[in-house]
Amino acid sequence: GKKIFPKNRKGKEIVIKGNTQDFTLLFDGAILTLTATIDTRETIPGTFEHDKLVVRWDGFVSVQIQTPMNVRTCGMCGNNDGKPENDMRTRRGKMTDDVDVFGDSWQIDPLGR
To answer: Which of 24, 50, 83, 84 has CA atoms 20 to 30 A from the CA of 72?
Structure first.
């Protein structure tokens, strides 16, 4: 529920402590990167492997989202099942080949509805 306003200082990392997990924000001078660990498992005693969600934003229009293959996504990211032919699903669940119909279906108003 909190709003966070990072100052655009190059190389400045901000760690946000959450109720169940933490995430970091890092600005490299051009891209703002948010990283959150979504799963941790011990592979061998004392060695841990982390699955992470990474979101990179250029501050304007380009967003890149990286998740492990077993993590489902939705919306303009598709469903992350490795089948691009079923990714153009509108907010109401209908498939379309029209990029304008697809994009417009995911548009939200300025109030976030």
So the answer is: 24
The owner of tokens 């967003």 is: 63
User: pLDDT, tens digit, for every residue of 26-66?
Assistant: 888 888 899 998 888 899 999 998 889 899 988 887 888 88
Contact present, 35 and 26 (Cβ < 8 Å): yes
Q: Is the pTM of this model over 0.90?
A: no
Rounded to the nearest 10°, the torsion over CA 59, 86, 54, 4 is: 50
Say how far residue 10 (Cα) sits from the centre of its chain: 21
The answer to whether the CB of 47 falls within 8 A of the CB of 40 is no
Instruction: Give the Å distances, CA to CA, from 85 to 81, 89, 105.
Output: 10, 10, 18
